[in-house]
Amino acid sequence: MNELVEAADEKQLNKTIARYGRVDLLCIDALGYMELDRHGAELLFQVLTEREEKDSVAIASSESFGGWTKTFTDPRLCAAIVGRLTFNGTIIETGTDSYRLAQTRARAEQNTAG
């Protein structure tokens, strides 16, 4: 998001969005972790629109779609982003347990057992 905001400030937004549109797979990790202001959310929406029905986007989020209203505070913009991401998409739910926490616990158990 920072790169998009800086590109917008430097009048390079179209070039930056086009670059994100050319990658085979765009991965966004921890979406929903931090609140995005309206401007940041609009920039993300532009990137997703550029990629729509062309190339893949993978999103990792510990927040369900219902909780994204905390990240994208404008309900209409939130609905539009969810719509862009889910149209012809595949949703894979892995549960609510943290993979990192599970790995840490497994290492701790190995250390105490060994």
UniProtKB/TrEMBL annotation:
InterPro entries referenced in this protein's UniProt entry, alphabetically: IstB_ATP-bd (IPR002611), P-loop_NTPase (IPR027417)
Taxonomy, superkingdom: Bacteria
Domain IstB-like ATP-binding: 2-105
Pfam family, one: IstB_IS21
Name of protein: IstB-like ATP-binding domain-containing protein
